[in-house]
Amino acid sequence: MQTVTIKNLTKKFGSAVAIDNLSLNIEKGKITGLIGADGAGKTTLLRTIIGLLLPNEGEISVLGFNPETQKDELNLHIGYMPQKFGLYEDLTVIENLDLYADLKQVPHDFEKMLEFTTLSPFKDRLAGALSGGMKQKLGLACTLLGNPEFLLLDEPSVGVDPISRRDLMKMVREMINPDTTVLWSTAYLDEAHSFDTAVVIDKGKVIYEGKPHDLAPTPQEFENKVIDLMGGYKKEESLIAKNYEYNHSYCGENDYYTVEADNLEKRYGNFYAVKNNTFKIKKGEIFGLLGPNGAGKSTSFKMMCGLAKPTSGTARIMGTDIIKHPAKARSHLGYMAQKFSLYGSLTVRQNLNFFALVYGISLLKRKKKVDEIIEVFGLKEYEKIPAEELPLGLKQRLSMAAALIHNPPVLFLDEPTSGVDILTRRDFWNHITSLAQKGVTILVTTHFMDEAEFCDRISLFYKGQTVAIGTPQELKQKANANDMETTFINLIKESEVNQ
Amino acid sequence: MKILLALIKKEIKQILRDPSSIIIAFVLPFISIMIYMYGINLDSVKITMGVKNDDNSPEVATLVKSFGHSKYINSINFDNMEDIKTAVLRSKIKGAVVIPNDFSTKLSRGEKSDLLVITDGSETNTANYVQSYAITIANQWLATSKYAGKIKRPLITAESRTWYNPDLNSHYFIVPGSIAITMTLIGILLTSLVVAREWERGTMEAILSTSVKPMHIVLGKYIPYFVLGMMSMAFNVFLCVGVFKIPFRGNYFLLFFVSGLFLFTSLGIGLTVSSKLKNQFLSSMVAMSLGFMPALMLSGLMYPINSMPEFFQHLTRIIPPRYYVSFIESEFMAGTIPEIVFANAIFLTILGCLLFIAVYMNTSTRLDGKR
């Protein structure tokens, strides 16, 4: 039995081909993972399957309906969670559930759902005030209302910590019945490896369709195989690092601490968002800040670069106190924010020109510098496109380009790889590690546990405090675990017990 | 029906939690009525003007005194033209009257005598006042002076009586007219944001994959904002009639009925723009310039439609505030006039329905704008 049959589907936006003569069957009662690079056409495919977009050519049949003409009938049988989850942030948890239950014309029977998602205590909290992981759970809960026969999830686990991701997966598996079909688009290949079927698409075409275990027995090998399918990742010398010139006037000795956090603390009333945060990072070190959503990572980050004022304590960048001399301290810093913070209506080149200007690169050197950075970041073919139209992965790449344009000796990256495909991530980390070798100090947060392995040292952050600090190896030993994900979960649970 | 109710309930909660919509609906009308009440005044005001008397006769001195005693002007006496020039230039006086040295001589001979009135053409409105005040004062003086016997009695005298607004108090029509402006603002400003917001936040994509139909979306936006707008309307009327004591001679039921029709058109403009543009910033800007500016300029509230160039006179026909301003002014000042109520109500209904159709057509059920 097939839930979806697609024959020779083509979808164009203007002259750009998003889906290229694609044929695909999705089996009933199975969980199918949809994998692909950014801009490969995953979201377009999901939207076309449920009739939110109309195909240019080809035939689609979903649960026996034609989404082109029978969208209304089809809607009764599906649950779709878009990338932004579709929550009303100014409504409470329960009001969102009430609304979606009414819109789907299903009974208001949320007890089991609330308990399962552990959202019960937050029933009356505004959706906008929930942490990232909670929002995702609520979005999923709204999508699951009425037990749809066909569930479509567009990257539901982007930007979510490993614990919430496990919960999300558990939630889907337990809330559906054996006949439910799930189409789950994801950037996490370990996630995709646990599904019944994997569909890899590239440039609007299916390049692999089959059981993940047939491709590779372990998630790690599966990841490598998928990368091969996508054209393979060749580790090349990082042009970004090659072109980077460390300005030795910054500091003298090698063991100099370039970034220091000294008892950083942020308090809102009685609530400590960050408490006693102290660490020192050496020149050329990659320091990872890990922790569940809402642990205070971003707050720490913002205090470290002077965007938020600590209630007590301070931070030093290249020995300069961020509170006493914010401008000077910041000039040593490249910062990449979690949210896309470039100008959406400016093109790629215009954005880079602008950042070159504000970082004080002289007009004469600017063109050369911008040309160079466009070249090394592989943005050449997109340079005339407005930033807001880029797929997520390219936006991240552009943000990093903007953060690096003035050759800073210290780089702060707040979830730089959220929502970025595997190839881009590998490429990204190649640049990061190469830059570190050139002496750049890097402070990074991530939810990808495989990335945590690349860090020289990790600080595990939970409820505003550091619960463990050390090399990945040390942390694994401490947690009695073989991989980072288990380490993460064990250490967080342990600290929960201690508290 | 249940879907529609759910959408309306959701919208009301959003309105209540967002202070800006409450501000737009209740604080804005208050500020706007205050401005129209105290800030704008089209009535005659006391004007400062200069008087230069070149005639030494004692009789003429009383004319100079009359200028000084008038309740409409403050007069300042001048001795030479240079000083008058400087005073006008510095805006110390808005104009001047110069009495020539042969003024009384000519009058006593029964001849026509000249009086020079200087006005400032850069402020034409004030210039008109200066002119008419000067002539009125001079004529009144003449009638009581010893030359009174020399004037020929005019055969016709005009007795003027101003109906509907005997005191010629401009607040009586501007303040009700301002209701039209606030109603336009509320209808357009509030709604221009709400559809675009759903697109920007991605909630539209989510609800389009449920059982929601375009009509639900359209009515789910119209109804809550209609209710909010009518509450704001009631508040407006309370301010006008209850607080500022603007006389109301019409029928409250008709006032609210036609206001409802007008609000229906305003909501239509805001929602059309919002559904079409799907971007909050852009649509609020477009809605403001498309809705608010014409309401102010072309509705006939500030500038009479008859005196506009022909092209603009025709253009006003498709501007809802034109019909509403005409209705509300007559309803307040002259009471219910069936022809006016009927004609304006019909046009508002037609425009409102056309806009409703436009909103409905622009409400897509797919992301690429198709149905």
Give an account of the 3D structure.
The complex is a heterodimer of chains A (499) and B (371). Chain A is an alpha/beta fold and 499 residues long. Chain A has 2 domains: 2-229, P-loop containing nucleotide triphosphate hydrolases (Rossmann fold), CATH 3.40.50; 239-332 and 408-498, P-loop containing nucleotide triphosphate hydrolases (Rossmann fold, 3-Layer(aba) Sandwich). Chain A is built from 19 helices and 19 strands. Chain A has helices at residues 42-49, 71-75, 93-103, 111-116, 132-144, 162-175, 189-193, 212-215, 219-229, 239-242, 297-304, 326-331, 348-358, 363-376, 392-404, 422-437, 449-452, 472-479, 484-498; strands at residues 2-13, 16-27, 31-36, 57-62, 78-81, 150-154, 181-185, 197-202, 205-210, 257-268, 271-282, 286-290, 312-317, 320-321, 333-336, 410-414, 441-445, 457-462, 465-470. In chain A, α5 packs parallel to α6 (162-175), α13 crosses α14 (363-376) and α13 packs parallel to α15 (392-404). Chain B folds into 2 domains: 2-40 and 169-362, no CATH class; 47-150, 3-Layer(aba) Sandwich (abc type-2 transporter like fold), CATH 3.40.1710.10. In chain B, 64% of the residues lie in helices and 6% in strands. The two termini of chain B are 21 Å apart. The chains are: A alpha/beta (499), B mainly alpha (371). The A-B interface holds A 47, 50-54, 71-72, 75-76, 78-91, 95, 98-100, 102-105, 142 and B 2-3, 5-7, 9-10, 13-14, 17-18, 201-203, 205-213, 365-368, 370.
